[in-house]
Each structure stands twice: as structure tokens, then as C-alpha cells.
Amino acid sequence: MLPIGGAASAPIASRATLTRVRAESRQFYVWMAYACAFVAIAGFTPTYWAPVATGSFVGPPILHVHGLLFSAWMLLFIAQARFAASGRFEYHRSLGLVGISLATAMLFAGLMVAITSINDGSARGFEQQTRAFSIVPITIILFFAATVAAAIANTRRPDVHMRLMLVASISLLPPAIARIFFVFLAPAGSPRPGLGEPPAVVFSLLPSFASDLLLVVAMANDWRTRGRPHPTYLMTGALMLALQIVRVPFSGTPAWRAVTDWLLALAG
User: Per the CB 3.0–4.6 Å rule, which of 77, 96, 179, 219 could disulfide with 43?
Assistant: First the structure.
């Protein structure tokens, strides 16, 4: 017979520890979902939701569609994280179908907003600057869509799926963080984002790097719970960082102008 507390009890202890770690990990994603939603709300309330509430917001209807869809994603992300954390996976899977439709709608709405911004900026005499800066929202929504598609393809691998969904949500946050910087750092009387001259693309780096800090938090949590960051974070994080940096020099090239020409022609 094996003594109590010997080799026979080790697997039981290991299973209990594994169960506890998994539960803590799922709860971590709930808090990260709330963090993403908080950043999105904090960023867009002063420049969008508050003006809409007071009737002072002026803009094309596609901006309202865009705002509703992207806000709905954050709410959906919270709900999905809570369902997974509580073990209600049947609801999680059912709501996942809604998520696929929502992400698809967000892709088209995001592209339409970028096209509308190019046309509006060109009409106000900022065609070159607007075309260049359009690389920021366009690459953000394309990266988001690609990451969500990868998450859908990995639904049978929960450790990969939940990390891809978190990265996808974090990738949407730079515009919200840029608006937080605008509220606190812009001179008094500055026109709200979208009304004045578009900033240089290089200024997208600061809010992008700030949003990356949430991914650093997620990687640190992996380090604490599993001893090293998950490969999913390493690969997607490297891709996201490379995209954030490369779009600065690429935005002013004839190749990117050709991309915007194609998008404008596609929109008619």
C-alpha cells in the first residue's frame, strides 16, 4: 500500500490545482473584458456619447452605426467571458454565433467609416493627410477581423480561442485611448477628432503602445499561472506591434494611395 500523502495523492492534488488555475484564468478574462470596455467608454464618451446625448454631435449616420456595433462588441465580450467563467458553455456557444455576425458587420462598418473620412477630409482640403491617416483605422479593423476569424477556427482549443478574442478586443482600443489623450492634452477649443486636420500617422504610436500594455498584463498573468506567456500572445502580439510600427512609413507610399484609390472606387 502507498502511504497517505505519497505518490497516489499527487495526481489528485495536481488535478485540484489545475482546476483552480483554470477557474482563476477564466475569471481573469472577465476582468480583462471589463477593462477593455472601460477604456472604450472612457475614450468615446467625451467625443461621441456625450455629444449624442446632448444633441450636439454632427456626423454622417455611418458613425452612429459604427458606434453601436463597436460598443455592442465590448458588451458581448463581457457576456462571453462571464459565461465561460461560470461554466455556462451552452450560452457561450450560442452567443458565439451572434459574435460572428457582429464582427462581420464591424468589418464593413469600419471600412465604410474610413472611406467616409477620406471623402470628408478631401472635401475640407486635407486629402493627402486623410488618405495617409486612414491606414490606422483600416489596419485596426482588418487585424481585428483576422484575429476573430482565427479565434473562430480555434473554438476546439479554448486556451488559444480565449486569448485570440482578448487580443482582438485589445486591438480595437487605440482610437479610444487617442481620444483620452485628446481630452487631457489638446489645447482648449481644439476641434474634436474627425473635424480638424488629421494628425500625422506617427502620433498613432503612443495610443497603440498604451493599448499594448493590456496585452502585457495578459502575458504577465500567463507567466504567473503557467510559467511562460502563451505562444498565441507572442505571435499575435508581435504581429500587432509590427503592424503599428510599419504603417507609419507605409502610409505615405504610392502603394497605400493605390489601396485608398481601390477602396474609394469600390465604395462608388
Answer: 179
Q: What type of residue is 101? A: S
Model confidence, pTM? 0.88
Residue 44: closest CA among 139, 195, 182, 187: 182
How far apart are alpha carbons 222 and 224 in whole angstroms?
Answer: 5
* E strand or H helix at 124: none
Domain boundaries, the chain: 31-267
How many Å apart are CA 2 and CA 261, to the nearest integer?
Answer: 75
Does the pLDDT value for residue 195 go beyond 90? no
Q: Could you give the CA distance from residue 45 to residue 196 in angstroms, rounded to a whole number? A: 19
Task: Compute the distance between CA of residue 76 and CA of residue 163 in angstroms, rounded to an integer.
Answer: 15
Single out the residue of 175, 169, 181 nearest to residue 138, CA to CA.
175
CA distance 90 to 87: 9
- Residue 59: per-residue pLDDT: 87
The amino acid at 136: V
CB 116 within 8 A of CB 60: yes
228/186: higher pLDDT = 228
Band of residue 72 on the pLDDT scale cut at 50, 70, 90: very high
